[in-house]
Amino acid sequence: MTNEPANSAVPAAPTLLTATTAPTQDAYRGRMYINGAWTESQDGTRFERHSPAHGHVVSTFPEATGADVEAAIKAADAAFRQGPWPKLKGVERARILLAVADGIKARVDKMSLLESLETGKPLSQARGEVSGCIDLWQYAAGLARTTSGDAYDSLGDDMLGIVLRQPIGVVGLITPWNFPLWILSQKLPFALAAGCTCIVKPSELTSSTTVMLMEVLEEAGVPAGVVNVVTGKGPTVGQPLAEHPAIDMLSFTGSTRVGSMLGGLATKNLKKIALELGGKNPQIVFPDCDWDAMVDAVVFGVYFNAGECCNSGSRVLVHESIAERFAQAVVERARQVPVGDPLHPDCKVGAIVSENQLSEILGNISKGVDAGARLRLGGKRYDAKGLYLEPTIISDVTPNMGIARDEIFGPVLVIIPFSDTQQAIDIANDTAYGLSAAVWSSDINTCLTVARGVDAGTVWVNTFLDGYPELPFGGFKSSGVGRELGKQAVEDYTETKTIQLHIGERKNWWLPRPVA
């Protein structure tokens, strides 16, 4: 275990909550779904997932072999080249997507419990996440009916130009452990709406809700081969999806390191890629902000999902005139956040997903303190069963420190002072990432200046972490390539084709002169 920083002056972190009842359900036994059939791996190997909060086995899955992956790719390719799905009317695909939304609605409780147990997130949050996926599938169903091409009747009397949008083909979808069903629902329904076929590789840490979703898709009438789910490790399952020539597009959400590697493999055979990667997202706080709303949003932004969120508001840039007042306020608010067993009804921050992740977070905290930053709250593992970390706040951070620049992916907030608006923008942009940001001020000129100046795919003004299916999501720089959600989401899974229709008699380019 990494050495944990100690500081006798650090206030006490919240007391750890304990659930009134322990989980008693049997472990979920998942299977892969390939070409319309539920199946084990070809060598019969399975792996287990233990609850990071409770330690017991909560689910088991087949560990795919290379042959299993090849079978899934072959099924998706046949379903696209020969099957009915790409040729269905938009309204027919829409009806099936709406049926999937209804199927999720009927399984919210079961899906939420398994997601909570696998990820360690509070059950109430898991329920909100699963319920929110219903809206994503309903929105994608609408796009299945409205995605269109274009026509050009301005090319002259003898020409009509038509631009079609056709499904790109077979898509590999690789999803992470932090929001397993939500992030899959940002990808899969939009790919299906476009008419694509898919192979899904969920994280080996959180595969349950993906497999359960396949049960829903089967009941909704998705044809065999259109969606295939293959469970297992990245080198065996994820890497072949990036490299295989029959995969036309790869969509990956996860770390920038892995995304860069997979993107490099995918582009070797000119595969289209969509990457949603890391973030080091700044909230920029000015003295004239709505103080209470800002403090609440800052604490929510960094401790939501235990900070295991690419959009986490993990660094706050605060004007130097209010920096100490701000630090004291967020420490006091964070000390009141309920931390503990994700099944406790009051829990807001649950367990860290794995021992490796917890160790990495502690290592980053230690590096920050060693570099001269001041630990204001937390910084230690709870002395209890389960993978729990105290909510942590670190001040006196300078922009060149590693904790100011690197994604920590845990419940750790760093506070960085600034002197004026331009310096705040410069500090915000001085990282490899550009996923999201927020600005807090009552001056609309300040808000717009920051919103325009910050390199980020999403900028919130006087709020944080709101999201809607209608609005595109994605990042600048090392935060990724492409956008999910919004009307463009379906278009990303298409290719454009130009058709030029000549009208009437075409003039000859050249005719030889008749021989005398």
Automatic annotation (TrEMBL):
Keyword Oxidoreductase: yes
UniProt-listed Pfam families: Aldedh
Catalytic residues of the enzyme: 276
Residue stretches making up the Aldehyde dehydrogenase domain: 38-499
Key words, A-Z: Oxidoreductase
InterPro entries cross-referenced by the UniProt entry: Ald_DH/histidinol_DH, Ald_DH_C, Ald_DH_CS_GLU, Ald_DH_N, Aldehyde_DH_dom
Source organism, top-level taxon: Bacteria
UniProt family annotation: Belongs to the aldehyde dehydrogenase family.
PANTHER family on file: ALDEHYDE DEHYDROGENASE-RELATED
Name listed for the protein in its UniProt record: Aldehyde dehydrogenase
Organism: Paraburkholderia caffeinilytica
